[in-house]
């Protein structure tokens, strides 16, 4: 199942993609129209309900049967939001998780021995097809980073590597947009990583049952249709299991937490000379089994 959150007629709603029909089944409409639906009001609440949510969605879809089309909403009519538009806490991001990216940002000496984590402010989150602001008043070096993101589905602390994937709700695509000059100037990454609209996420979260091998997915970023990043998550330095296990050591991970797993080589800063984003650039990040996240710089 592919879960999405969107705005329709100015109201936040959520649904799942009917892949055969190419339409979104509006689950918020089910909540509004039907009694005894047992569905939550938002996708985040659903994620917090765990497996009960998946069972409830499966039951509702089955019950719809021939009526399914009555709950369709056309993808062209919606404003895509991040599947979780208002995360409970900061987006956790792994730095330098591909050898070739660590080297392009410095040298072999920059390949980390331990998982490196920084965070992005919740207010930086935006959706598929929403503009990424250039912020030319504060940065001259806006850059993209295509990444696979993990959405936690089950609370846990001191999670072992063997258990780690059992704590995942699903996977999505995240663009870790970065102001390189601010990242460098302020030492800590927080400011350079947290400008408004610098964290596009989406278009949807693919449930983990549909993506069995998250550590082996092709990932590609194009800018204005030119391939800039082309790799596979099998090149991770730290696997998803290792990242979850490390983050949960002494710190409780919560349903709805979003973890970006790092970006491969080919960011703008890695080019000689660097190629930073400019107005009207279109960034498309495609990950095997998930889809494509597209945003235009404005
Ligand atoms: Mg990153």
Please explain how this structure is put together:
This protein is an alpha+beta fold. The chain has 2 domains: 2-80, no CATH class; 91-296, Fumarylacetoacetate hydrolase, domain 2 (Alpha-Beta Complex). 17% of the residues lie in helices and 31% in strands. It is built from 7 helices and 18 strands. The strands form 3 sheets. Strands 1, 2, 3, 4, 5, 6, 7, 8, 10, 11, 13 and 16 form a 12-stranded mixed β-sheet that branches. A 4-stranded antiparallel β-sheet has the order 15-14-17-18, with no helix packed on it. A hairpin with a 2-residue loop joins strand 1 (2-8) and strand 2 (11-18). Helix 2 (43-49) packs across helix 3. The model has no long low-confidence stretch (mean pLDDT 96). Magnesium ion is lined by residues 93, 145, 147, 176, 260, 262-263.
CATH class designation of the largest domain: Alpha Beta
- Percent range of helical residues: 10-25%
Q: How would you name the oligomeric state of the polypeptide chains in this document?
A: single chain
In angstroms, what separates the terminal alpha carbons? Answer: 32 Å
Report the CATH superfamily of the largest domain: Fumarylacetoacetase-like, C-terminal domain
Q: Would you count the extended β strands for me?
A: 18
Instruction: List the secondary-structure elements in sequence, H or E.
Output: EEEHHHEEEHEEEEEEHHEEEHEEE
Radius of gyration over all CA atoms, rounded? 19 Å
Query: What would the average pLDDT be, to the nearest integer?
Result: 96
* Uncertain residue ranges: none
The CATH architecture assignment of the largest domain turns out to be Alpha-Beta Complex
Query: How many helices?
Result: 7
